[in-house]
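Okay, is this right?
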Amino acid sequence: MLRAGVDLGGTKIQVAILDPNLDVVGQCRVPTPQDHGSNGVLDAMIGAVGTALTAANATADQLIGVGVGAPGQIDKAAGTLSHAINLPDWMGTVEVSSVMRTALGVPIELANDVQVGVMAESRLGAGRPYDSMLGVFCGTGVGGGVVMHDTLWLGRGAAGEVGHMVVEPDGAKCTCGRRGCLEAYAGRAAMEIEARHRVKHGHKTDLFDIMEHKGRTRLASGVWAKALAHDDKMATRLIKRAEWALGLAIASAVNLLDIEAVIIGGGLGCRLGAPFVDRIREQMMPHLVLPERPPQVLVAALGDLGGATGAALLVEHTVAPTEQLGAVLDPDA
């Protein structure tokens, strides 16, 4: 039997189909619709699962369930997603599980997108050798997760919000409405707002020409990567600004937690890869209390499929309560 995982992001929907050996046997990636609200996004998610099943030469009746990793506030019991500020027209509460269950005919498991990505890296990816790690995923926003003794630390429900650590009091305005958050400097949505602001004030960049050439409506990770490859000055400055903020925030988290490894993932982190991660490490070092024994700082090994893979593993506790990930993300399951 197969399981599907859906990684829902502000610019893309990624689906992976996993076989019983946890190998990816089918996948699909589509842009997140921007002009039909939450209903358009739900339809796209359902359609992407179908396309991924076709790629796996499988049908929906072979699925044991679908896991969904999503940004925003998750109510697992109700199967709803609320206040997803990086999704189009999704500030209210939207039923996700019931809609997808009706369309696909299988159980739907819903959890935070970064948490499932972090646990996938801990169990199957770059975090496997380590007992403790911090995952920092840079995409439309910046999310994080802390793993201790192979267990995701949830705190009272909101642990790991590294994106809203303050790196500069009264600094840049974040999409959350506050100022000085890491996400205001290293989240693609905030970086795009800053790029548009600079263009409006006469600064030059090829970012938006590249975006249009690629047929995009937002500055996706690939747009930033191409602009950097062309030595675009604005892109370079904004990425350096992001690296500074990431280094500062991660160093503070390391000083507090003394974890063994930091895994940098998300669309931007994976696309920019090792050079990006190396520069973040350089920015961290001056701020570490124990620079003589820094943590390992690594690129997420599962790449773009990390979130979808982790979401697929959510299905485990539906069919086998002793399996790992579902119990970790929902200890009361």
Q: What stands out?
A: Residues 319-333 have pLDDT under 50 and may be disordered. The first helix runs from residue 37 to 55. The chain has two domains: 2-116+305-329, 129-301. The longest strand covers residues 24-31.
